[in-house]
Specification:
By secondary structure, the protein is mainly α. It contains 3 helices and 2 strands. A two-stranded antiparallel ribbon has the order 1-2.
Length: 84
């Protein structure tokens, strides 16, 4: 499940999309510019949510400080195997 919660850095996203909307208004009706910007906002939010979910799935429980691989069951797959 992807959560679309509001974060502080979204103020920058909203400001940038607002300026993009102002730039679109001379070329099309304001209603279409607003619709495009709203679709862009939710598209960016969904993309970032899926990317964040993918990264957290790749990391798992954490990252090994020695080799940088994923830690599973509190053991590094590379370092712990080589010690045995």
């Amino acid at each position: 499940m992807i959560l679309l919660k509001f974060e502080r850095r979204e103020i920058i996203l909203i400001a940038g999309l607002f300026l993009f909307m102002i730039g679109l208004i001379p070329f099309m009706a304001p209603v279409y510019a607003v619709i495009i910007v709203i679709l862009m906002y939710f598209g960016i939010k969904l993309y970032v949510g899926k990317k964040r979910q993918s990264i957290s799935a790749d990391i798992g429980e954490g990252i090994c400080m020695e080799c940088g691989s994923k830690i599973v069951n509190k053991m590094c797959s590379n370092c712990d195997c080589s010690k045995d």
